[in-house]
Amino acid sequence: MTAETLLTEMPSLSKLYVNAAATAAKSRLVRAEPVLALPARAIEVRGVSADLAKVTEFAHLMGEPARDVLPSGYLHALVFPVAMSVMVQEDFPLPLLGMIHLRNEVEHLAPVLFSDELSVRAWARDLTGHRSGTQVQIVAEIHNADGTELLWRGVSTYLAKGVFLPGLDKPTTAAARVDFIPPAPTAQWRLGVDTGRAYAAVSGDFNPIHLSVLSAKALGLRRSIAHGMYAAARVLATVPQSKPDTFCWDIAFDSPMFLPATVSLEVVDHRTDDGAWLRSVFTAWDARTARKYFNGSVSAGRSVID
Question: Number of structural domains, the chain?
Answer without folding.
Answer: 1
